[in-house]
Design brief:
By secondary structure, the protein is of the alpha+beta class. 32% of the residues lie in helices and 24% in strands. It is built from seven helices and eleven strands. The protein has a seven-stranded mixed sheet, sandwiched between helices. The protein is globular, with a radius of gyration of 17 Å. It starts with a strand and ends in a 10-residue tail after the last helix.
Amino acid sequence: MPVYRLPLEPAFPHPSEAESDGLLGIGGDLTPDWLILAYASGIFPWFSDDEPILWWSPDPRYLLFPAEVKVSKSMKQVFKQKTFTLTFDRDFAGVIRACKTTRRPGQRGTWITDEMEAAYIHLHALGFAHSVEAWQDGKLVGGLYGVSLGKAFFGESMFAHVSNASKAAFIYLCQALTEREYGFVDCQVATEHLISLGAVPVRRNEFLMRLQEALDHPFEPGSWA
């Protein structure tokens, strides 16, 4: 299938038009209008500094259902011992910067470009992007950020400077999303870390149906602090 060059105004082809690796389109912008339409369509941006903006819709998609998050015995002890103080939206900029700069084994660079960082900070200011922070002795030691629309949460990136910090933040997020009756966390693609927490593959058609159900719920953007 062709990879679409996107128009000047926000618009995407149907996700079923994506290449076998999930690549759907090139171009567009990272303004809130583009990003919100992308997530509402089952599409997300992912590219490097030396590339144009690339938009993806992989098949299968990895989802995690909040009520089914796997909490190991060791993580139950982490929560019982109150190893971390966990918060929402206290330091979004700090979380995305840490996700951008934290080195990971086997990863030479980061896909969180300066442009992406600025775009999601803007989306956070509008109440659509949220962060979860894990604090220890007053220092930010782990966390994650993503986008919320309707009853869907789209995870983007996480980091940990101490053991179990990102897991604690993710489990804390899932507990909150369960209370709010969210349908799923979109994990986008498979990682061992997310699979260990309960992420499962879902075919694109099923994902799009679940997404539409999640978007049918009324939604008020705003801070989760």
